[in-house]
Specification:
Elements lengths: L1 E9 L3 H12 L3 E6 L6 H10 L4 E6 L35 H16 L8 E3 L10 H11 L20 E3 L11 H4 L7 E6 L6 H6 L4 H10 L9 E2 L1
Parallel strand pairs: 1-2, 1-6, 1-7, 2-3, 3-4, 5-6
């Protein structure tokens, strides 16, 4: 089985960046996805360039922080902060033209760092929301990179990074026995979503998911790889 441990929220805070790098250098993390509107993006870019074997994708954002595009009116408030949160499925569909404009702005900001773009995913998995499906596929084609698996994209395997996404390594599901669970996945190629970090004050102030990230980091740095697993 091929397994990619991806660390989300790269660039969110310095503590997140440091945790991701440790889980890459001393652990099983093979890729990270960068939030271009995070609080520590420059630090994340510098860290990625210092560790060029770390694959870096983009963590498209529509549900946290401020937009990068300055002239939006429908998907942000007067301060430029995104209107939607993790409960976006309970809200109306965002303006698709503005969403595309913002996400392309984020993608171009990523490319301007000089880092090679590995893949596309998103904060709170909003790229897999059915109303945004066609936009997600269009961006994947235009930027010539795969996207994170989502149920809405299952019928487009040529666009997907892996055959399935394992989201259970999160919260109460964090476990050292993850390799006991993965054989249940009926696929040969799986992405494991992770969120390692050193919990700093900025993370506590900006994310409700904070303390468990430290446990994730410790476990990701201590796993023994079974001989039936190939890390991507």
């Amino acid at each position: 089985m091929e397994v990619l441990f991806n660390a989300d929220d790269f660039g969110l805070t310095k503590g997140v960046n440091d945790g991701i790098i440790e889980a890459f250098v001393n652990g099983v993390v093979g890729s990270a996805t960068l939030m271009m509107n995070g609080l520590a993006v420059e630090d994340a870019v510098a860290a990625a360039k210092h560790h060029p074997r770390l694959k870096v994708g983009i963590h498209l954002v529509l549900t946290w922080g401020k937009a990068l595009c300055p002239d939006l009116k429908q998907i942000v408030d007067k301060e430029g902060t995104f209107l939607r949160r993790s409960n976006f499925r309970e809200t109306t569909v965002p303006d698709l033209k503005e969403t595309e404009k913002e996400w392309r702005t984020q993608l171009e900001a990523f490319l301007s760092t000089g880092l090679p773009l590995h893949h596309i995913d998103s904060h709170h998995h909003i790229h897999g929301w059915e109303p945004l499906k066609e936009l997600t596929l269009r961006l994947a084609e235009d930027y010539r990179v795969p996207v994170r698996f989502a149920e809405s994209l299952r019928c487009h395997p040529d666009h997907l990074l892996t055959d399935v996404l394992w989201t259970d390594f999160y919260g109460q599901g964090i476990t050292r026995q993850i390799f006991d669970h993965l054989p249940r996945v009926p696929t040969g190629k799986v992405e494991v979503m992770t969120h390692p970090a050193f919990v700093d004050t900025e993370l506590q102030a900006n994310s409700s998911y904070n303390e468990p990230r430290d446990l994730e980091r410790k476990i990701l740095c201590s796993l023994e790889i079974p001989d039936w697993v190939t890390l991507l």
